[in-house]
Write a structure and sequence with these properties.
The complex is a heterodimer of chains A (228) and B (270).
Chain A: H1 6-44, H2 50-65, H3 68-78, H4 88-113, H5 117-125, H6 130-160, H7 172-183, H8 187-218
Helix pairs in contact in A: 1-4, 1-6, 1-7, 1-8, 2-4, 3-4, 4-6, 6-8
Chain B: E1 18-27, E2 30-40, E3 45-49, H1 56-63, E4 71-76, E5 79-80, E6 83-86, E7 89-92, H2 95-102, E8 105-108, H3 120-130, H4 136-149, H5 165-177, E9 183-187, H6 195-211, E10 215-219, H7 223-229, E11 232-237, E12 240-245, H8 247-252, H9 257-269
Parallel strand pairs in B: 3-10, 3-11, 8-9, 9-10
Antiparallel strand pairs in B: 1-2, 1-4, 4-5, 6-7, 11-12
Helix pairs in contact in B: 3-4, 3-5, 4-5, 5-6
Classes of the chains: A mainly alpha (228), B alpha/beta (270).
Chain lengths: 228, 270
């Protein structure tokens, strides 16, 4: 039943590896957008301005509660109807970036909340400005608490990049679809796609744990995984 | 505006370093401070004692402006702290005004609240560099001197997690002093320490009263220490000063029955 063809596998491998680069760019760029916008979302929910807090809170809830694939379609196909014409890449990055920004804003929020109240009070007592308090005292302490969450979503966004194929972004999954459509062989391309995802995800997860330990060490905190 | 009947500033020869006038603080239905009046003179050391929930710590938190004020006003060095002058009237102080006034005050907390991601030295350098605009070299020099003063010259590069509670609290004292405050607030600074570590912290505070011209307000449960270093003891009960006076008088001959009951309960516990 399974007639795995090695020569076919080797033939399509370069094409899939090329597409893997696009997948990595999509995941990396999307994640970068999510990191920056997510921080803005998180801080916006802590301003004294109730209206800002409310709007951002609702936006985050809305994005988190609707499917990513719908959001991708929406940005790409509904945009032109109101005069916003975007390339598949731009639309895809906006959609996936905003989607993960909403998730990451919650991770940021939990991280900021994990810093004890006494740290804020010490900053007030020392007269540090709000900006300095965040930049030098609160955010550095929040980082170790957010790394595991950030790591999960990094792998999450990577695994969600195939959804970009629905608007024609030529990433790994779309490349496998094309090969299948051209050759009527699906076993090898899809198996390879799965393997490539696995080969990238597993070391990333390990790297994230190492990174967490390294950050904790750099901040003078106790390491979690390494035996020192 | 209810604040109108308070003076815009305190004038005269005997302006206190700190003055609470009719200060009330409520948390919901609970009145923590009840129209409190309290003066602390320049260079004076006072200890605030009393049962838990009597508003002792709130006095310090109000003075550090970690809490908002419900009624009344606080003056520091003759100028309003919780309010500021605007068109000849007192209005709620803006955050920039509070920051300016707050620079007169340093505070040491029960739980130390050191920055865990900074070494002892960095803890003492951060605010002088960022807030006072000191050069890093000058701040390092000053932080080093202060850590030496509290007996931690060999622990400067340690992170707080590597220090004992007593050592951490001494770093916290050095950190507060690095901002050159006129007023130091000590909020139950030995309560979180193991008994054998209390002495090293009280020794540092004793040294401060001897060698520095600071106004000090401390909330404490250590009656012996309070008696030894204070010029005046204030006994708090239900958000008010029930009795105050020189240590010997208050401890040996309390006039108020609440004070007497509290002191005998504390003595029994010891």
């Amino acid at each position: 039943m399974f007639d795995w063809k090695w020569d076919f596998t080797i033939e399509i491998l370069p094409r899939l590896l090329d597409a893997t680069v696009n997948t990595l760019i999509a995941a990396g760029l999307g994640y970068l957008i999510a990191l920056i916008v997510g921080l803005i979302f998180a801080l916006a929910q802590r301003t004294p301005l109730r209206s800002v807090t409310f709007i951002v809170r609702e936006l985050v809830e809305f994005v988190r509660s609707t499917p990513l694939v719908l959001q991708i379609f929406f940005v790409f196909y509904v945009g032109p109807q109101i005069g916003i014409r975007l390339s598949p890449w731009t639309a895809g990055m906006i959609a996936i970036g905003l989607h993960y920004a909403s998730y990451l804003s919650e991770v940021y929020r939990a991280g900021l909340d994990s810093v004890p109240k006494g740290q804020w009070e010490a900053c007030s007592a020392l007269n540090l400005s709000v900006r300095r308090t965040y930049a030098k005292i609160i955010i550095p302490q929040a980082i170790p608490a957010v790394i595991p969450g950030f790591g999960n979503y990094l792998i999450g966004i990577f695994k969600d990049t195939p959804l970009l194929s629905v608007i024609g972004v030529m990433e790994l999954f779309q490349a496998a679809n094309s090969i299948g459509a051209e050759t009527y062989r699906f076993l090898e391309p899809y198996t390879l796609v799965g393997l490539i995802f696995l080969v990238i995800s597993l070391p990333t997860a390990m790297f994230i744990r190492r990174f967490e330990d390294w950050v904790r060490g750099a901040l003078g905190m106790k390491k979690l995984y390494a035996k020192d | 505006m209810e604040e109108q009947h308070f003076p815009l500033s305190l004038e005269g020869d005997d302006v206190p370093m700190v003055r609470f006038m009719g200060v009330t603080k409520r948390y919901g239905d609970l009145t923590v401070l009840d129209a409190l009046d309290l003066d602390v003179a320049d260079n004076e050391t006072i200890a605030i004692i009393g049962p838990s929930g009597s508003g002792k710590t709130t006095v310090l938190r109000m003075l550090m402006v970690l809490e908002t004020i419900d009624e009344g006003i606080i003056y520091v060095d003759g100028k309003p702290l919780t309010h500021m002058e605007k068109n000849g009237r007192l209005v709620r102080a803006s955050s920039s005004y509070i920051r300016r006034m707050r620079s007169n005050i340093g505070m040491v907390f029960q739980q130390f609240n050191l920055f865990p991601h900074m070494t002892a030295l960095e803890n003492c350098m951060e605010a002088p560099v960022q807030v006072l605009g000191m050069s890093r070299d000058e701040a390092r020099q000053r932080a080093g001197d202060l850590l030496e003063m509290v007996g931690l010259e060999d622990k400067m590069d340690q992170y707080p997690a590597r220090l004992s509670g007593g050592q951490q609290q001494r770093v916290a004292i050095a950190r507060a002093l690095a901002m050159r405050p006129k007023i130091m607030l000590f909020d139950e600074v030995t309560s979180a320490l193991d008994p054998e570590l209390v002495g090293e912290v009280t020794n540092v505070i004793r040294k401060l009263t001897d060698e520095h011209s600071l106004t000090m307000i401390m909330v404490t449960h250590q009656m012996g220490f309070a008696r030894e270093i204070s010029d005046r003891i204030c006994f708090f009960y239900e958000g008010k000063i029930a009795e105050q006076g020189p240590p010997d008088q208050l401890f040996d001959n309390p006039h108020n029955e609440r004070t007497a009951a509290f002191l005998s309960a504390v003595n029994e516990a010891d």
